[in-house]
Amino acid sequence: MTEASAWTLSLASYSPPTKLWLAASAERDSNPPGEQGDQPHLEARSLRVLIVEDEFFISLHTKQLLQVLGHVVVGIAVSAEEAILFAEQERPDVVLMDIRLNGSRDGIEAADEIRQRSGIGSIFVTANTDSQTRQRALASQPLGFLEKPLTEQRLKLGLSKAV
Fold first, then answer.
1. Which residues have CB under 8 Å from 87's CB, separation 6+?
2. Alpha helical stretches, state H, the chain
3. Which among 141, 57, 20 is positioned nearest to 124, based on CA atoms?
4. Long-range contact list for 61-68, CB < 8 A, 24+ apart?
5. What is the DSSP letter of 37?
6. Which of 20, 25, 60, 71 gives the lowest tally of CB atoms within 10 Å of its CB?
């Protein structure tokens, strides 16, 4: 079999997918599998949100989800120090805070300092935490916890419960 005939054979067996759901899709009426009808329709006011996340693509995805939900992203910080400065300058309504960050301080310390200095609450966004870390996080009086990966519905519900 020649290279050209192998190529033709593989093209002949190709069939394009009919519909593909993407987590970062801007389409509002499209729900991912398993989340259709899981949550009631929630009306929420537009929030000013600070994202604290040291992974670039996760922060962009979070920003897009917030914008689709009608919220304003006032900044994206990658370290505790940067988050504290942003919070003081921009005065967001809420902070979406990753626990593990770049630098010597983590998101728990940043959330605690932001709350003490500015009275702004944080929602921790995390993939998984051990019980000791979760206890430290609870001591900082968060508005809540959201599990990664974020989805539009998960974020919408978490923000509506927190504020």
1. 50, 95, 114, 117, 118, 120
2. 3-12, 56-68, 80-90, 107-118, 131-139, 152-162
3. 141
4. 61/23, 61/24, 61/149, 61/150, 62/96, 62/125, 62/150, 62/155, 64/24, 64/26, 65/24, 65/150, 65/151, 65/152, 65/155, 66/96, 66/155, 68/26, 68/28, 68/152
5. T
6. 20
Q: Whole-model pTM?
A: 0.73
Positive/negative CA dihedral, 63, 66, 68, 74: negative
Helices (H) and strands (E) in the chain, counts: 6, 5
Q: Which CATH architecture has domain 45-158?
A: 3-Layer(aba) Sandwich (3.40)
- 2-48, pLDDT tens digit by residue? 444 433 333 344 444 433 333 333 444 444 444 444 444 445 589 99
Which uninterrupted H or E stretch holds 144? strand 144-147
- Name the packing angle between helices 152-162 and 56-68 (round to 10°): 70
Domain chopping of the chain, boundaries? 45-158
